[in-house]
Amino acid sequence: MRLLRSTDLALRVLMRLAVVGDSTPTTREVAADMHVPYTHAAKVVAELQHHGLLDARRGRGGGLTLTEKGRGASVGAIVRVFEGDGEVVECEGDTPCPLVSACRLRGALRRAQEAFYVSLDPLTIADVVAEPTGPLLLGISRRP
Question: Per-residue pLDDT tens for 65-109?
C-alpha cells in the first residue's frame, strides 16, 4: 500500500511540530523545510487544524503548534483520516472488474488494508519522534 502525498506530509508536519519546542514555524517555513509546495502544505495544515491536531495562528507571533491531541494522536487514525475509506483496488469504477460479483480477492485486500491500519494504531506521534528520530528532525530544518 502506498500512502497519498498528503498523508505522508501530514505525518511529517506533526512529527516536525512535536520536536520544535517553543518554536512556532509558519506553514511556509514547514513547506520549505519539507521541500513541498506551500499550497499543498497549507491544505494539509488546514485539515490537521480541522481535526484539532495542531493550532495555526496568523500574523505576528503566529505559526503552527502541536496540540496535546496531536501529540497523542494515533498514527493509524491519522492515516485513516487522510486516506479515507477507499479500497486498495477499484473494482466498480469506469471499467468494472468482471469478477466483482464473485471475487474473493477484494475481501482479502480489505482485510489486509485494515490490518495495516491496526498495526499503526498503537503508535502515537510522540512515539515516532522518540530518539533517534527527534534530533534528526531538528537537524534537517533549513532555519538556524
Answer: 999 999 999 999 999 999 987 877 777 778 888 887 788 888 898
Q: Are 49 and 10 in contact (CB under 8 A)?
A: no
Radius of gyration of the chain (CA): 18
Containing 56, the helix (H) or strand (E) segment is: strand 54-57
Secondary element (H or E) of residue 57: strand 54-57
Q: Compute the distance between CA of residue 139 and CA of residue 56 in angstroms, rounded to an integer.
A: 23
Q: Is residue 10 exposed (0-12), middle (13-18) or buried (19+ Cβ within 10 Å)?
A: buried
Q: Three-class SS of residue 140?
A: coil
For residue 30, give the C-alpha cell. Answer: 514547514
Q: How many residues does the chain have?
A: 144
In 3D space, the residue among 27, 1, 5 whose CA is nearest the CA of residue 82 turns out to be 5
pTM value is: 0.85
What is the rounded distance in angstroms from the CA atom of residue 138 to the CA atom of residue 144?
10
Report the alpha-carbon distance of residue 3 to residue 75 in Å, rounded.
Answer: 13
